[in-house]
Every structure is written in structure tokens, then in C-alpha cells.
Amino acid sequence: MEKTRLLLVHGGTKRLSQLTQLVQDQGFEVIVSKIPSTTDTGYRAVIFAGGTIPARSYREVKTWSREFIRGLRVPFLGICLGHLMLGLAYGATYRTLPEGEYGPTPINFEEEFPLAPRIKGLTVWEDHRHELVHLPSELRNYASSQTSRVQAIKHIEKDQFGIQFHPEAEEETGGLIVLETFLRMVRQS
């Protein structure tokens, strides 16, 4: 039986091997591509992983991400940097946090997040210094932490999701359910 192909956009995350392994363990063939060199189109879903963007290429990556994400016709999950790029693709604004958010962090769902059904709260692994602050009407926020108001977003019409936390982190305690639910949704589509 042929495996479902998933594109993993590598934003420079230090957890690429863990994320790749988690997705492969769910029966997917993973194609890894750095940004902005992605040209492959034979995939059924996209995960845009975390990482950092050097200041010298920020504008290029933001422009590429906007065109890439807005043009997608397959399910999308943005993790950390991918979450930020999803927001920016539709016109969200962000800010740099004074202290950042790192380590195990409780998040609360204000309403049911499609990738965490019937879950009111999770303890997730955070590792970021930026947060989305103003979302456009196309995106809806579902969760927050004490530090970051925007933790889990979804496009109101498309299967495009963003999570601020890292479900692939070895230290992760609760957010893995979000990744597993996304992958299950992709298999069923």
C-alpha cells in the first residue's frame, strides 16, 4: 500500500528528526524541504515546522509564505514559526515578547479546537519569543496561555491550523494529541 505523502517545510527547527519520525510513525511518507525552495506538489498535507528566520531573509520568507500558504489546497499545520507565518499570510500582526515563553506551559481552550476535541486545557512545550497579537477575520483563535493570547488558530473556511507550541518536543506532555488529530484528519480526507 502506498503511503500518503506529507510535505514538511523545514524552518530551521532543532527538532526536525523528532517531528519527521512522529509523522512517519503515523504511516506517512515525509518530504522535507527548506524554505523558500519548496516546489514539490505531490503531497496531501503540509506541516510548516518551527525555527528562526535570519533578519536578512525575513521579507523574502514572509512573501514566499504568504503566497504558498494562501495558495494551498491541502490541509496545513503551522508549528511555532509556521503558526506565525500562517497568521502573517492573512494579515495578522505580531510582537516580540520581553521574556519569551519556554518550557512546559498550560494553555486553555476558550472553545473547542478542531484538533483537540473535547479538551479544555493542555500542558504543552513552548519555545518562542514572538506572538501573534491581532488576527484578521479569516483566522480564529481557540487557546491562550498566561504569556501568549494566541496559541491555537484555524482558518474559518480552510483546513489550515497553527499552534504556537511544539508537539514534537521530547519534553512534550500534552500537545501531541493535536499533531495526531491533524494526521488522522489528513488520512481520512
Unreliable stretches covering 5 or more consecutive residues: none
Mean model confidence by pLDDT: 91
In what order do the strands lie side by side in the largest sheet? Answer: 2-1-3-4-9-8-7-5-6
Query: Which structural class is indicated by helix and strand composition?
Result: alpha/beta
The percent of residues in helical segments reads 10-25%
- Predict the CATH topology: Rossmann fold
End-to-end Cα distance, whole Å, is 17 Å
Please give the CATH architecture.
Answer: 3-Layer(aba) Sandwich
* SS element count, helices: 4
Radius of gyration: 15 Å
Please tally the β strands and state the result: 9
The rough form would be described as globular
In total, how many domains does the architecture comprise?
1
Q: Output the CATH homologous superfamily.
A: Class I glutamine amidotransferase (GATase) domain
Write down the CATH class: Alpha Beta
Amount of beta strand = 35-45%
Largest sheet: 9 strands, mixed
Order of helices and strands: EHEEHEHEEEEEH
